């Protein structure tokens, strides 16, 4: 036991940033050179062991240097080349969605299994800037029982031990090790001093320690000089005391040795807090791509299952590889050079295009197969209208699709001015004339309805150019004044001078939502910050606010009222279109910002009127509560501020479609909208040749959702998805078909369970449905997929993710698998 407690495991590795201060083409070349160097070391030093992660790197070598790839396969089979980190890349570990992490495991681990016959057992993100609290469950679901990371370092987060069991909200645990003194050669007193310190640490802690060596960042790996020096050190201290090893061997020994290490249930934060908001465009493209691909998968699966449309396996896989590559921490963190983001734009563009084509093919196949024929129609002819296929006053079918796993009720903008709209049963709907995006002679008006679309399904609406209809009385119609919006649930008033929300009154709760002005655009000085925000925990040095507002009514109801607020700060212009829909307590805002500031940040501030505030936000496949002390923190689609007064709970959620950063100080929530540091500025010389990030026009949306009661019961998880995943529509004509005019694709009995993915099984034999519990409550759910004629019951633990494999054989039982689709 004594020798176990003082041993140092030397890990020869090559940290490779495929993109950072260089573009991916340079990273591609460097990976080949680094792998060649590692193979040379394996030949020259018989006891050397090499460790490397990232399936993307191996794929590059396979496609461009197949002879070297064959050598690597041989070394892996020998056990001297150790594959770790079963993900596509070393991603940012805060900002990708939960499903993106699942895809890193699915595509990364299956690649390793196919090419090398092994899967990574150790999660490996040594350079990522922080690690969200659901990581242990995601790692376990990806087939990994252990985890390696470096940041936050000791000065950023104190841990009782660098070796510990890390536990997530659902109870999953992984044995975890935090590196000290970096993943490379640089360290105080050089490599020898580093190894000596780690030996002393091992003796003090009573268990072995890992010590990493090798030239990193731009690749390189262990050098000849490294290994010669290590040989001398080992001869001095003893071959058993200092071993050339791998993370796999280290964790295997620790499990056998079973040292008394702590269990930690917390996120691993916080490093480089500026990276949560840097480079808005790529972050918005990431969110859009993630949802686009999931929608494409769902409806491509549906069209394949019902109608035999070939599933676009390769296009969707290529799109996911693009998205996963762009989630690399120096890309997603926004800290690479300007030229790199031109490549990022292309990768996201290809992913979005591939997703759009796959999605469109599926929707068109489904809509074309719906029976929309009417007895009066003999053949198709455009006699009545140059756009619509309507004959006489029979109407034109518009098919509206919902990618989400619950019924969605939402405003739907129809690209045509209409006299009336009915559902598939002929019931008339309330309509509203809204401004179109075109200015085509007098044709500049469209129509809005409130659509109600079944879960992961569709509904046909019949639209009429001339035929009018009398809809039932509208509940909670919106009233619009010059500076106010009001319905049966809420009243919002704007300050005419500043454009801030002067008052937001919740009628049902009989209380003001804010205790001051809301939606206040606050400008923060960040001259003291580098691109990453190194050494900072907060951005709160206010230097100004947008004001000098122009307020104009855009829409007058009854379905929706909208007021446009345009305000200014120096050379920047902020336009917020603030809307209220009928019978809704949510304020929806669409933003267009022309940002011209430098070394500055824009936040939108909301002082929520609660006592004893508690701040909870979404993290990948989960949520977390954090202290309201003003720190800059990462979040995903929503953040909620709630307080308890006299045994009752009240709060407000802020939902967004493309932002990832915010802070909460007391009861004031501030969402970070944009920031403009210098590209890839690590406190270098700031001369007049530098370029600033995020200059120009940005567009995004957010929603304010006040609620009485706990956030878990307020529907905000679903509302956040609805903001990010809009309804989809296809114009149709008259034709016979085998599908009905409305259909539901999935039925889930629990309001706290979301089905996030529906896709073919990678084995080609069956279907995958992935669900997760959203509220931190144990629940039972009955799940049904009508198209498969399947229904099953299951129990979910707190924040538990479940992946179900539905075999093609109807007699075979539905079974649970992990992200890799292995039991």
UniProtKB/TrEMBL annotation:
Origin: domain of life: Bacteria
CDD domains xrefs: GH38N_AMII_ER_cytosolic (cd10789)
Domain Glycoside hydrolase family 38 central: 271-348
Keyword Amino-acid biosynthesis: no
Pfam families xref list: Alpha-mann_mid, Glyco_hydro38C2, Glyco_hydro_38C, Glyco_hydro_38N
UniProt entry keywords in alphabetical sequence: Glycosidase, Hydrolase, Metal-binding
PANTHER family cross-referenced by the UniProt entry: ALPHA-MANNOSIDASE 2C1
Family: Belongs to the glycosyl hydrolase 38 family.
Protein name stated in the entry: Glycoside hydrolase family 38 central domain-containing protein
């Amino acid at each position: 036991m004594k020798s176990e407690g003082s041993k140092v495991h030397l890990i020869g590795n090559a940290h490779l940033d495929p993109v950072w201060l260089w573009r991916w083409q340079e990273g591609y070349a460097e990976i080949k050179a680094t792998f060649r160097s590692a193979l040379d070391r394996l030949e020259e030093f018989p006891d050397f062991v090499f460790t490397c992660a990232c399936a993307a790197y191996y794929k590059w070598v396979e496609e461009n240097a197949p002879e070297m790839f064959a050598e690597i396969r041989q070394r892996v089979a020998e056990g001297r080349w150790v594959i770790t980190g079963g993900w596509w890349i070393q991603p940012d570990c805060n900002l990708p969605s939960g499903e993106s992490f699942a895809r890193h495991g699915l595509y990364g681990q299956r690649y390793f299994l196919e090419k090398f016959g092994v899967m990574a057992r150790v999660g490996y993100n040594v350079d990522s800037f922080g690690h969200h609290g659901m990581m242990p469950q995601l790692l376990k679901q990806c087939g990994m029982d252990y985890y390696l990371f470096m940041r936050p370092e000791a000065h950023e987060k104190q841990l009782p031990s660098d070796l510990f069991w890390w536990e997530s909200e659902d109870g999953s645990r992984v044995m975890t090790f935090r590196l000290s003194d970096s993943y490379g050669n640089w360290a105080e007193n050089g490599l020898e001093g580093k190894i000596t310190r780690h030996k002393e640490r091992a003796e003090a802690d009573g268990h072995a320690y890992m010590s990493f060596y090798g030239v990193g960042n731009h690749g390189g790996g262990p050098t000849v000089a490294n290994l010669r020096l290590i040989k001398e050190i080992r001869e001095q201290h003893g071959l058993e005391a200092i071993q050339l090893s791998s993370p796999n061997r280290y964790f295997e020994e620790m499990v056998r040795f079973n040292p008394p290490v702590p269990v930690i249930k917390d996120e691993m934060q916080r490093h480089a807090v500026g990276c949560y908001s840097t480079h808005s465009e790529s972050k918005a493209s990431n969110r859009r791509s993630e949802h686009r691909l999931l929608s494409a998968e769902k409806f491509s699966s549906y069209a394949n299952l019902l109608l035999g449309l070939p599933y676009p396996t390769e296009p969707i896989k290529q799109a996911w590889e693009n998205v996963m590559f762009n989630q690399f921490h120096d890309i997603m963190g926004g800290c690479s050079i300007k030229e790199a983001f031109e490549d990022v734009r292309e990768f996201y563009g290809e992913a979005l295009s591939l997703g759009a084509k796959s999605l469109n093919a599926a929707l068109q196949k489904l809509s074309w197969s719906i029976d929309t024929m009417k007895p009066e129609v003999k053949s198709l002819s455009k006699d009545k209208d140059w756009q619509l296929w309507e004959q006489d006053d029979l109407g034109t079918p518009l098919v509206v699709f919902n990618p989400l796993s619950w019924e969605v009720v939402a405003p739907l903008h129809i690209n045509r001015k209409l006299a009336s709209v009915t559902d598939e049963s002929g019931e008339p709907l309330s309509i509203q004339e809204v401004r179109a995006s075109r200015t085509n002679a007098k044709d500049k008006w469209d129509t809005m309805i409130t659509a109600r679309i079944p879960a992961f399904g569709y509904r046909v609406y019949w639209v009429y150019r001339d035929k009018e209809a009398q809809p039932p009385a509208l509940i909670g119609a919106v009233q619009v004044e010059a500076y106010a919006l009001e319905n049966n649930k809420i009243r919002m008033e704007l300050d005419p001078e500043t454009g801030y929300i002067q008052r937001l009154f919740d009628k049902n709760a009989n209380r003001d939502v804010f205790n001051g002005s809301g939606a206040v655009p606050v400008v923060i000085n960040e001259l003291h910050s580098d691109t990453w925000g190194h050494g900072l925990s907060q951005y709160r040095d206010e230097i100004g606010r947008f004001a000098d507002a122009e307020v104009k009514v855009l829409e007058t109801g009854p379905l929706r009222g909208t007021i446009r607020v345009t305000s200014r700060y120096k050379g920047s212009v902020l336009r917020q279109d603030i809307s209220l829909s009928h019978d809704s307590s949510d304020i929806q805002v669409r933003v267009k910002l022309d940002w011209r500031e430098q070394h500055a940040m824009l936040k939108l501030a909301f002082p929520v009127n609660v006592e004893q505030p508690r701040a909870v936000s979404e993290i990948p496949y989960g949520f977390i509560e954090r202290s309201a002390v003003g720190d800059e923190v990462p979040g995903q689609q929503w953040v909620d501020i709630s307080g308890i007064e006299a045994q009752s709970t009240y709060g407000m959620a802020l939902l967004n479609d493309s932002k990832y950063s915010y802070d909460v100080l007391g009861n004031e929530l501030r969402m970070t909208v944009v920031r403009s540091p210098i590209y890839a500025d690590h406190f270098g010389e700031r001369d007049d040749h530098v370029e600033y990030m995020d200059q120009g026009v940005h567009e995004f949306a957010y929603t304010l959702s006040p609620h009485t009661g706990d956030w878990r019961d307020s529907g905000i998880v679903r509302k956040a998805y609805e903001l990010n995943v809009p309804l989809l529509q296809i114009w149709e004509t008259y034709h016979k078909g085998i599908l009905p005019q409305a259909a539901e694709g999935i039925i889930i009995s629990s309001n706290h369970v979301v089905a996030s993915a529906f896709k073919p099984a990678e084995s080609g034999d069956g279907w995958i449905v992935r669900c997760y519990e959203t509220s931190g409550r144990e629940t039972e759910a009955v799940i049904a997929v009508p198209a498969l004629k399947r229904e099953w019951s299951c129990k979910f633990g707190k924040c538990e993710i479940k992946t179900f494999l539905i075999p093609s054989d109807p007699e075979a039982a539905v079974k649970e698998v992990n992200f890799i689709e292995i039991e």
